[in-house]
């Protein structure tokens, strides 16, 4: 018996990285999954590989019309909606004084306004079948700041706050809303973050060797937490934030500058 048997999920940003791994895990636990992303070819390939219990929808999370189409697809294809994982996101690395207003707004639009629209449109549909669960993928940059990433940090702090407010509003409809806060995770998002610097598993692990868990995270480290929060096992957990960072935010090991 799967931990998500009978449930229907939408996972954004599921063409690669953590979203892809989460979609594969959810499907393996019995959920029907609507994968969405801007990356159409990659998303179609992942959905086809997972199999018949999935479909892919091209989706820009900043578009309200796209969100309506995604939620409609879940209901038309699979009959209901139980789970939303707001995973799509973009990184940004420009210090405050050099960051244009357009760049700052652009990151907020994807990482914060996108999940807002998704919850606004998905929640009334979840309510029709008695409730559901929403997992918002924030970051440790929703817990602590980081120089050089003003838009990203603001968006991830914002998503953590939005999670609390939405949890308070939707509890009476049986909908739980939680945020997760990954540390460094080996995906294209950090591999491509610094132009001209090629990152590998080895260099990323070396950059995280000072942590209590002395390596970079993998998508497989993150997806099980979303699974737990989306499942009925977490039925009494809402408005919570769960850090998955190898201990990065718990303090200093003394090995930071080796
Ligand atoms: N990798 C890390 O170190 C790390 C750490 C903490 C949090 N996160 C968060 O985890 C989430 C997943 O990121 P990842 O690490 O798998 O990176 P990734 O770049 O591999 O995946 C992000 C996906 O989101 C999609 N996307 C971007 N903009 C979109 C839009 N407007 N509409 C729809 N899809 C869009 C991308 O095409 C991509 O497939 C993000 O929210 C990210 O901020 C990542």
Task: Give a brief description.
The protein has helices at residues 17-28, 40-50, 64-78, 101-128, 150-170, 188-191, 201-207, 219-230, and strands spanning 8-12, 32-37, 54-58, 83-86, 132-137, 175-182, 241-244. By secondary structure, it is α/β, with parallel strands linked by helices.
The end-to-end distance, rounded to whole angstroms, is 47 Å
* CATH class type: Alpha Beta
Sheet with most strands: 7 strands, parallel
| Name given to the CATH architecture | 3-Layer(aba) Sandwich
CATH domain fold name: Rossmann fold
Query: CATH homologous superfamily - what is it?
Result: NAD(P)-binding Rossmann-like Domain
Write down the secondary-structure element order.
Answer: EHEHEHEHEHEHHHE
What's the number of structural domains?
A: 1
**Backbone structural class:** alpha/beta
Query: What ligands does this structure carry?
Result: nicotinamide-adenine-dinucleotide
Instruction: Tell me the strand order in the biggest sheet.
Output: 3-2-1-4-5-6-7
Mean pLDDT equals 97
Shape: globular
Number of helical regions: 8
Count of strand segments: 7
Q: How large, in whole angstroms, is the Cα Rg?
A: 18 Å
The residue fraction in helices comes out at 40-55%
Strand content: 5-15%
Report low-confidence residues grouped into runs of 5 or more: none
Oligomer: single chain
């Amino acid at each position: 018996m799967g931990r998500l048997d009978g449930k229907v999920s939408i996972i954004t940003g599921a063409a690669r990285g953590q979203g892809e791994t989460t979609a594969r895990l959810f499907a393996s636990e019995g959920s029907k999954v609507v994968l969405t992303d801007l990356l159409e070819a990659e998303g179609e390939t992942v959905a086809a590989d997972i199999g018949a219990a999935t479909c892919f929808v091209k989706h820009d999370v900043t578009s309200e019309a796209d969100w309506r189409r995604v939620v409609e697809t879940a209901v038309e294809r699979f009959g209901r909606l139980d789970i939303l994982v707001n995973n799509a996101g973009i990184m940004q690395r420009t210090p405050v004084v050099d960051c244009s207003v357009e760049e700052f707004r652009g990151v907020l639009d994807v990482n914060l306004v996108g999940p807002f629209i998704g919850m606004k449109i998905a929640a009334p549909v979840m309510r029709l079948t008695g409730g559901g669960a929403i997992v918002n993928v924030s970051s440790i940059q929703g817990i602590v700041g980081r120089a050089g990433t003003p838009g990203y940090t603001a968006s991830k702090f914002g998503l953590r706050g939005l999670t609390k407010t939405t949890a308070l509003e939707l509890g009476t409809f049986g909908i739980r809303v939680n945020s997760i806060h990954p540390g460094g995770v080996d995906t294209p998002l950090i591999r491509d973050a610094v132009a001209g610097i090629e990152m590998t598993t080895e260099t990323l692990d070396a950059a995280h060797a000072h942590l209590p868990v002395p390596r970079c995270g993998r998508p497989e480290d993150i997806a099980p937490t979303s699974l737990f929060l989306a499942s009925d096992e977490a039925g009494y957990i809402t408005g919570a934030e769960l850090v998955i960072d190898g201990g990065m935010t718990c303090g200093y090991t003394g090995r930071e500058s080796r």
